[in-house]
Amino acid sequence: MKGTVLDVHRVGLRRNGRCVLDDVSLSIVAGRMTGLLGPNGAGKSTLLRVLLGVLRPDAGQVLLDGRDLSQWHRREVAHRIAYVPQGHISLFPYTVRDVVALGRVSYTPFARKVGAEDAAIVADALVRLSIGHLAARSYTDLSGGERQAVLIARALAQGGRILVLDEPETGLDYGQQQRLYALLRELADDGYAIVATTHDPVRAAVAFDHALLLRCGRVMRDGPAAQVLDAQGIARLYARGPDDECTGAASPEEIS
Amino acid sequence: MMGRSAGWLVFGGLVLCLLVSACLGRYAIAPGVIARFVVTAMGGQALPQAQYDMVHAILMGARLPRIGAAVCVGAALSVSGATYQAVFRNPLVSPGLLGVLAGAGFGAALGIVNGMGTTGVQTLSFAGGILAVSFGVGVARMFDAASLLMLVFGGLISSALFTALMSMLKYVADPQQQLPDIVFWLLGSLTQVDVLRLEVMAVPVLLGIVVLSACGRMLDALAMGDEEARTLGVPVTALRYGTIGIATGLSALTVSAVGMIGWIGLIIPHVARLLAGPCNARVIPLSAGLGAIFLLVCDDLARCLSAEEIPVGLLTDLLGVVVFISVLRLLRRGWRL
């Protein structure tokens, strides 16, 4: 597909003898917001890790700009794909500026200080997220919403055009969620490729362009968000069923 | 800004401590005499020959190697502690975590029981420290090389093993001569350091500090968690084992040279963070300076408090408690304890 920056091709992954991902394909396209949905344990987070290159698939491949992800240097990947984890608490009281500056660490890993050019990029990222006033605050003192803004700013500072977010709306109130998705839309319009897992199919149908519905490690539906996340799609995705436990021990007829 | 002024403060404090330490001792030397000694040594004629020879013997033969050792050991242990705390993302970690102290103690005891000389004991001690950490890391790798928790468990097991082995050596040691030697060695002392040993120690210590400081920003990324650090472009496993390797080498080197010196690796990095914030590129060099100052002061006290020298390890333990209690109140603000 035109504009594809990250191409997941028939990926399979087993962990502890259990099939976590089975024949999953997905195209991440610049300027498009892609949502990953599915019940708990469906393999959303695992797929996210595969996209980031943190987990290597057992089958199939992930192509970044046409080249297998595992062949890229870790640093080059960091310059293209940025990860926004769920807000976490670091034990060390780094300032907001320090945390955002870590987005630049792969450019000058052994530097004692953040260079002038990097400092300008960090300042830009802070302004873009409207958290310039927090720059000198301790990251550990921030609220959940502020912390997430810091992590997104760090991802922007990393310089890549692919943003991977893990359940970004977790812990945010309604207004914060609104602003988050408005920002992500703005970034997508700027040409960023956005991939996010989410637990909110109703919002996803509106907010995302494209959706991949995962169930038990397999793709249930893949297509324009509004289309695949219709009432029937949502009902089927979250329905209780014989494969509810996601044992992954697919029987032969299921595979065929 | 805070970081820079703290750096100068510590540097100034260190220079002052060095000068004071050179003056203090069984034979006190006035600062003026030291200045004139330096002038004479550089070709001037500021001191009479007899006095010059005496000052030369005291300073070069005994005092300066010892001061150098205090600086090296204090700096090495603090840097090692700061690195361990960063790698393990835990403020309560000290360089002994992976068993280096237990292993070095065992090695030294083994040397003493076999009647070896100082060099033999120190070599065995260094080897013991490295062996113990390798064992701990090996246990961790048997199960899950990437897991931090496994590494801690490996260290626990290794520490327990080598502590037990050392107890066994204590049990079989000759109680008249060898056992007191082992106990005294474990207390830690800077008396055995001469110029040669100092040279062997100083170069790797300095190199280690430089390399670890250079890894400071990547260690900051590691503080965010393994997965995040990877996505930030940091080679997590290589960084972890590389820095642990260097930090372990540093502490094994110091323990083998001067015995067990406690607390420094745990407290000094905290004080450094109080002064300069949590960024490791600043914390590590600052820890080096602060650790050097702390051990210099302790060693000055060890030399001067009584006619009979007090083991410096004992003093660092006692003084460490005082320092730790006094900074704990401040620490609570920065840490989520």
Your description of this structure?
The complex is a heterodimer of chains A (256) and B (337). Chain A has 256 residues and is an alpha/beta fold. Chain A has ten helices and ten strands. Chain A has helices spanning 44-52, 74-78, 96-101, 116-128, 144-157, 174-189, 201-207, 225-228, 231-238, 252-255; strands at 4-15, 18-29, 33-37, 59-64, 67-68, 81-84, 162-165, 193-197, 210-215, 218-224. In chain A, helix 4 (116-128) crosses helix 5 (144-157). The longest helix of chain A is centred in the last third of the chain and has 16 residues, at 174-189. Chain B has 337 residues and is an all-alpha fold. Chain B has one domain: Orthogonal Bundle (ABC transporter involved in vitamin B12 uptake, BtuC). In chain B, helix 3 (49-87) runs antiparallel to helix 11 and helix 8 (195-214) runs antiparallel to helix 13 (280-304). The longest helix of chain B has 39 residues, at 49-87. Chain B is globular. Chain B starts with a helix and ends with a helix. The mean pLDDT of chain B is 89. The interface between A and B is medium-sized, with 36 and 30 residues.
